[in-house]
Amino acid sequence: MFSADAPHFRILRLLRDEGPVSRAELGDRLGLTRPRLLSEVERLIASGIIVEAGMAASRGGRRSTLVEIQPNLRFAAVDLGASSIDIEITNGRLEPVAAFHEVADIRSGPRAILQRVNDMLAKAKVEGAFERLDGIGIGVPGPVSFRDGVPVSPPIMPGWDRHPVRELLAREHGCPVVVDNDVNIMAIGERHGGVAHSVDDFLFVKIGTGVGCGIHLGGGVYRGVDGCAGDIGHIQVDANGPVCSCGNTGCLEAVFSGSALARDALLAARSGESPALAERLAAADSGELTARDVAEGAAEGDVVCIRLIREGGRRVGGVLAALVSFANPSMIVIGGGLAQLGHVLLAEIRSVVYRRSLPLATGNLPVVLSELGSRAGVAGAAVLASDLAFEQAS
């Protein structure tokens, strides 16, 4: 989708990621001839997307003028989760200038959720976060046709199939819009400003309400022909396991995810197998338990909570071991809501991956927790929004 080799695109990305740079340094860094570079820079200045920013330090001759991304650029980054909406407004350097969070059920349908997104953006505008938007990036918790900007048969998003998300937001806000699935935008965010910064080949595994994998290879996200690469939550891990939201049996997501862990915790509490969880259930007004209850029980030494986490880590680790043998990444990053389970989960995933993959593939393979945490999604959505705006600046 993005013309990554176009000179103007490379100039804008470099200025976005590194701040003000002189014309001379731009030419050196990008390998452009001086006439070509000056032509591109002057055109971008004329369009208003970059501006001059004072004088550079002397390199022994006449000092060069610095150029930078227009400070007034504004991008909206939207991360739709199964039960929440997170929005950040950023400047051209992708530094957040405003942030908003709201609890929302993705199952309430696209009209209700997108109306809430529009209302939150309207509030941001009233509060002075932007006058106009230069691009919107949005991630959704299900498969997406990246080319068409629509969700496609998302298992936990009833009513969203082929809904024209990109078209509706672009029409409402008068700016380019890019739509991707949530785990891809998290991978992009982690690559841009997290633990995977400067790592070209890695897997970002989101374990939350669902389970997915962002596949970052050769410096970019691999989406597959139809946009559904990395949907590891629907790999079967137990032929006799529970029915998944996708309709199949024993998927990884049905065996270990936020909802699966809550289900198993509730059973352990009601059966009396775990006194710690039974006590938490008795104190819960909702009559339900969550992954946080399991995490707290494990921290207190409850053997059932620890077992539930370790069994889940073993399932995830088995799937990732196969992916490591297949793709040979240089890093695995674990994120999503269940990353809060911490090092009990991480240690089990690591143990299985290292034990079941070839030594050549794991000899220098860190398996780490996300550095950006809950911000990974909005960070990646902002990168995609800026990339699209920069592409269209040609």
Main attributes of the structure:
Arc Repressor Mutant, subunit A; 3 domains; transferase; single chain; kinase activity; globular; Nucleotidyltransferase, domain 5; 14 helices; 5-stranded mixed beta sheet; 394 residues; alpha/beta; 42% helix
Topology:
Layout: H1 7-18, E1 21-22, H2 23-30, H3 34-47, E2 50-55, E3 65-69, E4 75-80, E5 84-90, E6 96-103, H4 110-126, E7 135-140, E8 144-145, E9 150-151, H5 165-173, E10 177-181, H6 182-193, E11 202-207, E12 211-217, E13 220-221, H7 252-255, H8 258-270, H9 275-283, H10 291-299, H11 303-327, E14 331-335, H12 343-356, H13 359-362, E15 367-369, H14 376-391
Parallel strand pairs: 4-7, 7-10, 11-14, 14-15
Antiparallel strand pairs: 1-3, 2-3, 4-5, 5-6, 8-9, 11-12, 12-13
Helix pairs in contact: 2-3, 6-14, 8-9, 8-11, 10-11, 11-12
Protein name: ROK family protein (Putative glucokinase)
Family: Belongs to the ROK (NagC/XylR) family.
Organism: Actinoplanes regularis
Walk me through the structure.
The structure is a single chain. The protein is α/β, with parallel strands linked by helices and 394 residues long. It has three domains: 7-69, Orthogonal Bundle (Arc Repressor Mutant, subunit A); 75-190 and 375-391, ATPase, nucleotide binding domain (Nucleotidyltransferase, domain 5, 2-Layer Sandwich); 197-370, ATPase, nucleotide binding domain (Nucleotidyltransferase, domain 5, 2-Layer Sandwich). 42% of the residues lie in helices and 18% in strands. The chain is built from 14 helices and 15 strands. It has helices spanning 7-18, 23-30, 34-47, 110-126, 165-173, 182-193, 252-255, 258-270, 275-283, 291-299, 303-327, 343-356, 359-362, 376-391, and strands at residues 21-22, 50-55, 65-69, 75-80, 84-90, 96-103, 135-140, 144-145, 150-151, 177-181, 202-207, 211-217, 220-221, 331-335, 367-369. The strands form four sheets. The protein has a five-stranded mixed sheet with strand order 6-5-4-7-10. A five-stranded mixed sheet has the order 13-12-11-14-15, sandwiched between helices. Strand 8 and strand 9 form a beta hairpin. Helix 8 (258-270) packs across helix 9 (275-283) and helix 8 (258-270) runs antiparallel to helix 11 (303-327). The longest helix is centred in the last third of the chain and has 25 residues, at 303-327. The model has no long low-confidence stretch (mean pLDDT 94).
